[in-house]
Amino acid sequence: MTKTHPSFVLLLALICVSCVDGGSQRGIWTGTVRDSAGIRIVENPEFGLWTPETAWRLEEDLRIGVVEGDANLQFGEITGIDVFSDGRIVVRDRLAEHQLRVFSNEGGFLYEFGSTGSGPGELGRGLAVPQVGFGDTLFVPDIGRQRICVYTADGTHVASVRTAIPASEGTPLWDVTSQGTLVAQLSTKPMPNNQEETLTDFLVGFDLDGGIDSLFSFPSAAILKTLPSGLPRVTLFSPEPAWAFGDDGILWYGPGEPYRVHVYENGELASIVSKTGATTEITQADRDVVIGAWEQIFGDAFRDMATFAEVLPAYQRFLRGPENTLWVQLIEPPGNLTEEEVEDFDPEGGYGGDTWDVFDSEGRFLGSVIMPPSFEPFRFSGGALYGIWQDEMEVDFVKRLRLVN
Fold first, then answer.
1. What is the Cα–Cα distance from 149 to 166, expressed in whole angstroms?
2. Which domains does the chain have, with CATH numbers?
3. Tell me: the pLDDT tens digits for 159-169?
4. CA count, 13 A, side-chain hemisphere, 348
């Protein structure tokens, strides 16, 4: 564990604040808002509202983990992080399959809980990311045993809720709404020999009585189809939908391309937010990097299964930020990677880069933040961003970045 001294804070994220006219430099928003059939249309310029004086930045103030030493501070492969209301940090490590570790706000190890089995409070294989809900209730989806285990913040088992977690193509994504509902994104599986089939993803909510409620649906990413021959056809760089829940019943949803965010309030489309910027065509360098990475996994035959979209997606992920801001992870063209970065490139992780656009609660573009390299953000809590960081040896650490604005 390393606690960064305040006088030697390393600034790990710089704000990209660029402007082309005096209005933007003075912090005057130059976008437009109009009404279309009762839907608010927010059109943002390419450059944000922040000035160098008002821009947000992120500073590292906590790192948990060691390469050697205390076993409680060593991680194999961190797959989930969340934060309790008092700042305690809960971590799931894939190599400690049936246990969760909890650390103090200062990064010290406090306790662990969970054990293998099918009894009350015991956990099976295939755990999803732990999620902290209302009252510091901790939800741990145990997909293998078709139940959701519920704990208090001190690790006391409260309930194991039996529920039929529907089968999903790929790993489900999980989150908790501002109202405390546990939600998963479930993807349907393509049927053989059906090239025209339009598939649907669902956001489903789980309650503590074992019930499941469909909250929202949207077209699946058109990445995989099955040819009449029975062979798969993979469309690389196909846009994938992104979503996140905001405060007070807000759902942000985007199709991935073009740069557009649909804002739903209590289930109804309320506004559409867009941002000016030319689409990025896919280069031969992009193709070569991605094909090479997939061939490392599936062999030379993958090249015959692959085709490409025409342009890069606009973004990869959405993340709820402080003050009901929306953070949008932009795509990093693989062709821009250095030789060393190409060697470490994991195509299964997507094409998201270190740059995140930030929008306020009204949909106005504020500016862009550059995350630290090799950092995967998980959750904002208490004015800080928590995530996983890997060092040059690919050792996992928990890292906290304090938001300064």
1. 17
2. 6-399 (2.120.10.30)
3. 988 877 665 55
4. 6
